[in-house]
């Protein structure tokens, strides 16, 4: 069960004729797809094709121009206002705070989702992403790769049933990429639904399904 009380099993996301355009520019048209617990799907396409936009639509951060996103938990539809605990989004746009330590960032962002965890549990999240011993350092001293690992620590703390990963291996060295691969593998084994936006062939190989945006 995720930290927000949502079970991993029985989650389903359905995209029904989802389209998005900005002004006269059409990003994508009538996407229909179903993603269930334990599924991994990759959204691929050139820069500017709408990969990140589609993830934000699924997360409910922006609205589609037409179509709808449905979320079900054990067959029961989850109302839009109750979906906050369903999703965990890793994105280059996720704001972290340089004036705080890594630990303070994690605690603050988890509490912002209405979740209270013990110090021991938060410490374990740092260890799980290879940041053990670095949690009390200011975020301003973190490399871009360490910041990316911290974002995965947030996912580990919240344990949402649906992961939305926008370029999850960006800024990571080979060791970091292996870590991400293992984290995704472990999440799928726990029946998490994983949706990845990427152009990386290695990340695309994680998936059983693909959505190609052109």
Question: How would you concisely characterize the structure shown here?
Answer:
The protein is of the alpha/beta class. It is built from six helices and nine strands.
Structure explained in plain terms:
With 214 residues, this protein is of the alpha/beta class. It folds into two domains: 10-86 and 161-213, 3-Layer(aba) Sandwich (Rossmann fold); 94-159. The protein is 30% helix and 27% strand. The protein has six helices and nine strands; from the N terminus they run E-E-E-H-E-E-E-H-H-H-E-H-E-H-E. Helix 2 packs parallel to helix 4 and helix 3 crosses helix 4. The radius of gyration is 17 Å and the shape is globular.
Give the secondary structure arrangement, pairings included:
Layout: E1 11-22, E2 25-36, E3 40-44, H1 51-59, E4 66-73, E5 76-77, E6 87-90, H2 102-112, H3 119-128, H4 144-158, E7 162-166, H5 174-189, E8 193-197, H6 201-204, E9 209-212
**How many domains make up the 3D coordinates?**
2
Uncertain residue ranges: none
Topology as H/E string? EEEHEEEHHHEHEHE
- CATH first level of the largest domain: Alpha Beta
List keywords for this structure.
214 residues, Rossmann fold, 9 strands, 5-stranded parallel sheet, 4-stranded antiparallel sheet, alpha/beta, 30% helix
